[in-house]
Amino acid sequence: MPPPPAPNRERLDRFAGNRAYFRDLTPLSRTRRALSLLGLAIPLVWVVVSLGLPAEDRHHQLTHGPVANVHAAWDNKCDACHVPSSLGDLSPGAVLSVNAVHDRWNAFSCETCHVGQQATDPKNYAPHHVNALWTKDKSNVSCSACHHDHQGRDFSLVRVVDNDCTQCHKDLKNHQHEPSDADQASIQSFVDGHPDFKGVKTGFERTMHFNHQHHMTPGVAYSKQAIDNKTGGAMKLKDIPTEYRERYRQPGQGDDAIVQLNCASCHQLDSGRVGEKVPESFEADRKAWTATEWLAKGLPVDSVLPPRGEGAYFQAVNYNVNCKACHPMAGGKLPLRPDRPDLLIDLVQLPHGVQPKVLRQQMEASVVNQLLKATPAADKPVLPGRLDPLPVKKSDAIEKEAADFVRSFEKRLYQSANAGCLQCHTATGKANEPVIVKPNSPVLWYPHSKFNHARHRAMDCASCHPGQKGNIFGDSEVANQVDLRKPQPPNIPGIDNCTQCHAPATTVGELPRGGVRFDCVECHRYHNGDLPQQGIGSPRRDPPDNLRLNTDRFLRGR
Amino acid sequence: MLVGRSRFARQSFLYLLGAIFIFSFACAFWYAGVAVGLVTRAPGSALFGYTNGTTTIGYYAGVVGFLIIIFEMLLWVRKRLRGRRLGAARTWMFWHIWLGLACLPLAIIHSGFAYGGALTGIIMILFYAVIASGVWGLAFQQIIPKKLLDDIPQETIASERGKVMYDLFEEARALIDLLRLEDADEVDGEVIVKTQLTTYRTKQLISFFDRQMGPFMLATGSGTGPLASQTRARQLFADLRAGAAPQLVATLNRLEAICETRRQLDRQYNLYWWLHSWLCVHLPLSIALLVLLVAHVGYALKFW
Q1: What's the mean pLDDT in A497-518?
Q2: Is B2 among the domain residues?
Q3: What's the rounded Cα separation, in Å, for the pair A390 and A28?
Q4: Does B214 map to a domain?
Q5: Is the domain of B13 the same as that of B130?
Q6: Is B1 within the bounds of a domain?
Q7: Span B33-44, pLDDT tens digits
C-alpha cells in the first residue's frame, strides 16, 4: 500500500502562478548546471586552442602517449610516422567502417628510416625468412603488427610479445612456401611446445681428442701420485715457455707450482682489449690482453680483432692461443740418417693448420735447402763473372735424401698416439698421408638463436656445462689414457637446462625454479631470419644509398 | 532499486551475484583469449595478456566503449524530453547503469592499461571519476529514497522547500498574531478578563516565537538553535504547555508540529544533498569526457 501523500504536497498550490513549478531550480541544481557548463567549456576551449597551435604543440597535447626513446625525436611529429588523412581522403565507408579505419592505422611510414633493401618492397625491412608465408592476414607483415609504440619512453619496441611469433609458429606447416627442415612442432611458448634445440636433437660430432676433465686435473696429470709430486709427470709452470706462462699462473703461484687450468685458461670472451696498451697493474687484464693479442700476432690487430665490448660469445679455441704453450710443434734437430749423425737437420717451427700433404712439401723444401747448404762448394755449379749466383740445381740425390728424411719423420708425426698431430686430431686417409679432419669447435653452437655468456657470468660454468670438472681417475690410481683421448661430447646444454630458470616461477620441493623471462625474443631475432646472427649493422640490412637521409629529412621524419 | 526491477534486498543480492558471474565470465574469456592468441600474451607470461587501442580487440573495445558513452549521454536527453514517449525511465536507468559499468573494462582494454599522453590520460582520469561518481550515486540511490520515505513523512518537492517553509512560517505567525490580539486588555473597547497565568503564558509564547521560533523558521539554510533539536524542542514546548489554557495548548501543539515539519524539511534538504550532489560531479565530468572523446576520435581518424 503506497504511503499517504505528504501534507506539504497537498498544502502547496502547485499551479498558483507557476505552472512550471517543477522546473524551479534548487541551489544544488543551479550548481550542477554551472559545473556542467564548465565541463563543456573547459575541454572545448582546450581542444579549440590546441587546434590553433602549431602542429608540433598540437601533436604534443593530443598524442596518445610518449613514444619510445628511439623515436623521441619525433614525439611531436605525428605525421613523421603516421600517414595523416584529410577529410577529402575519407570516404563515408572509410569512416563508418571500423575495419577500414583499423586497416588505415597500419599505414605507417616506417620505411622512411627503416627502408628495406628490396626496391620493389621498401617496407619489407630485413625479411624474416624467404620461406615465410603469410596466409591469413597480410597486415601481419607490417611493422605495426609487432611493434607498438606510444607505450612510454622506456618501452622496448623490439621486445615483442610471444603471440607475434606463435601466430605462425604454432602452425608452421601452413606458413611456409615449401616444406623445410624447420621443426614443425606447435609452439605456444618456450615452455609449451618448443622442441629441443636442433643441435641437441641431431647430435654434435666432435673431431678432436680432448678431455676437459683431464685438462682441469692439477698438472694435467695421469696419476694421483703425480699430482702429489711424488712421481713427476705433472706439468709445472716452469715447463711452460716464459711468454705464455703468465696466462696460466694462478694467484700466488711460483714457477715450481703445478699448473692448474680453469675454464678461463682457454675460453676467452669476445670482449678482448685489443688495441690497448698492455696494462701493468692488474694481472687479470694482462692475461686477457695477452690471450687476445696472440690471436692476431703479426696481423693488423684492429682490423682482424676489432675492440668488442659485450662478451656475448667465447672466441673459438685456437691452437696458437690456447694449445701451443703446452703442445708446441717445436722441431729441434734430427740426424739425416742413422749413419750420418754428423748431419743434423733442423726441424724448424712447423706451421699449424696445414694438411699433411702441404706440410710434406714445406718440410721437403726446408730439408733440401739445409742439405744444399751442407753440400761442399765443389758440387755447386760456378759461373764466373756473375755477381748473383744462379739458383742451385738440386740433384736427384739430395731430393731423395730429403724425401726419405721427411717420410721417416712423418711416421713419428702421424703414427704416434702419444705425440704428434693425431694426439689431438682425428684423420682419414692413409696412415702415412692422413687427411686431418677439420675441428668442429664453432663459436656458435646454436646459430639460430642468440646467447650472451656475459649475462650469465654470475653462474658457475659447470652449472650449465656439467661433467667438465672432477676426478678422472675413478677408483684407480692411474687414469686410462685411451679413454681420455676419445672425442668428448661438447656438453652443450639443451632446452631442459635453460628451462630451469627461463620458465614460469615455481617451486620443486623446496627449490625455487623458473622466474626468469622466457619470451621468444629473449633468444630469437625476427629480422633477417635466415641469418639471424647478422646484427643490425649487417650489409644485408643497410638501406640503399639513394634512400639514405640527410639530417634535415631525418629529423623531419619525411 | 535502480539496478533492477526488484525493490527487495535479496533480489538485489541476486543482481550482485549476477555481476560477479559476468565479471568472472569476462575474466575467463580474457584468459581464453590469451590462450588462443586473440589477446596479446604479455612477454614472459603464460597467463597474463594485454592489448591496446591499435590491436584488433583493443580497437573494437574502444569503438564499442565510445558508442556506450554516447548512449549514456542520451539519458540526459531522455530526461529533458520527459514528455515524449522514449521508453520508461527505469529501463533507461537500468541500461545506463549496467552498460556504464561494462564500459570500464572496455576502456581499460582499449587503453592497454596505460594513460598515454595528455589527452588520453585526462580522458582516462575523467572516465574513472565519472564511473566512481556514478557508483557513488548508485549506492546512495539505493539507500536514501527509502530513508526519505521512512524518516520524512512531511517531504515536499525539493525546489519548493523554501516556499513551503515560508508558508509554514506564515501559518505560525498567523497563530501568534491571533494570540497577540487575545493578549490585548481590551478589544474593540471591551475589557477582557484573563487570569494572571494565562497572560503570562501568552506573553511567554509570543516572546518564544519572536526570539526563537521565528528566526528558526526563517533561516535560509538548516534551522539552528534549540528548536533544531527534536529533544530540546519537545522540552521547550512541554514547559510552555504547563498550566496553559486549552486554547493555548492547541496553538502550542500546532506550533510544535510546524517546527517538526521544518526539522523534517531540513533533514530532507540534507538527504537531498547526498542524493543528488554526486550529479554535480558525474554530469559535468561526463560532458567534459564526451568532448575530449570526440577530440580523441577525430584525432585518431586523422592520424591513424
Answers
A1: 91
A2: no
A3: 121
A4: yes
A5: yes
A6: no
A7: 766 666 665 554
Q: What average pLDDT does range B67-85 have in this prediction?
A: 88
Q: Where are the alpha helices (DSSP H) in A375-501?
A: 396-414, 461-464, 481-484, 495-498
Which residues of B fall within a CB distance of 8 Å from A60? 117-118
Residue B122 domain flag: yes
pLDDT of residue B285: 96
B144 and B101, same domain (yes or no): yes
Q: Which amino acid, A554?
A: F
Q: Report the residue from A7, A144, A517 with minimal CB separation from B154.
A: A7
When CB atoms are compared, the residue of B161, B277, B304 closest to A82 is B304
Report the C-alpha gap between A81 and B303 in whole angstroms: 9
Q: CB A64 to CB B167 under 8 A? A: no
Q: Clarify whether residues B27 and B133 are in a common domain.
A: yes
Residue B102 belongs to what domain range?
A: 9-152+275-303
Asked whether the beta carbons of residue A98 and residue B63 sit closer than 8 angstroms, the reply is: yes
Total domain count, chain B: 2
Interface mutation target, options B79, B119, B262, B272, chain A, most CBs of A under 10 Å: B119
How far is it, in rounded angstroms, from Cα A283 to Cα A289? 10
Same domain, yes or no, for B120 and B75?
A: yes
**Looking at the structure, do residues B109 and B139 belong to the same domain, yes or no?**
yes
Global pTM reads 0.67
**CA–CA min distance A424, chain B (Å):** 44
State pLDDT tens for residues A161-190. Answer: 888 888 888 888 888 878 777 777 889 889
* Res B59: pLDDT: 82
Position A86 scores a pLDDT of 67
Q: Which residues in chain B have their CB less than 8 angstroms from residue A64's CB?
A: 53, 116-117, 119-120, 296, 300
Provide CB contacts within 8 A for A432, sequence distance 6+: A407, A410, A411, A414, A415
Chain B CB contacts of A148 under 8 Å are 52, 54-55
Same domain, B171 and B76: no
Q: For the residues B69-80, what does the mean pLDDT come to? A: 90
Residue B91 clears pLDDT 80, i.e. is over it: yes
The verdict on B290 and B144 lying in the same domain is yes
Residue B285 has what DSSP assignment? H
CB contact under 8 A, B156 and A8: yes
- Cβ neighbours around B7 below 10 Å, total: 9
- Both B183 and B35 in one domain: the answer is no
Residue-wise pLDDT tens digits, A240-257: 988 888 888 888 889 999
User: Which cell goes with A107?
Assistant: 599505414
C-alpha B113/C-alpha B107 separation (Å) is 9
Instruction: Extract the C-alpha cell encoding A530.
Output: 635466415
pLDDT tens digit string along A63-92? 777 889 999 999 888 888 887 776 666 666
Pick from B224, B210, B122, B133: nearest CA to B173: B210
pLDDT above 60 for B244: yes
Q: How far is B156 from chain A (nearest CA, A)?
A: 6
Complex ipTM: 0.78
Angle between helices B89-111 and B118-151 in degrees, nearest 10: 150
What pLDDT sits at residue A496? 93
* Closest chain B residue to the Cα of A86, Cα to Cα: B302
| Contact assignment for A28 to B114 by CB distance below 8 Å | no
In the predicted model, what is the mean pLDDT of chain A?
79
- pLDDT greater than 60 at residue B1: no
B159 CB contacts (<8 Å, ≥6 apart)?
A21, A22, A24, A25, A26, A29
Q: Which three cell numbers stand for residue A53?
A: 597551435
Measure the CA–CA gap between B65 and B101, rounded to whole angstroms. Answer: 10
Please state, in angstroms and rounded to a whole number, the distance separating the CA atoms of residues B156 and B158: 6
CB contact under 8 A, A85 and B120: no
Query: In this predicted structure, what is the pLDDT of residue A275?
Result: 46
In order of A462, A499, A505, A516, the CA distances from A508 in angstroms are 21, 13, 10, 15
The CATH number for B281's domain is 1.20.950
pLDDT in tens, B96-109: 988 898 888 888 88
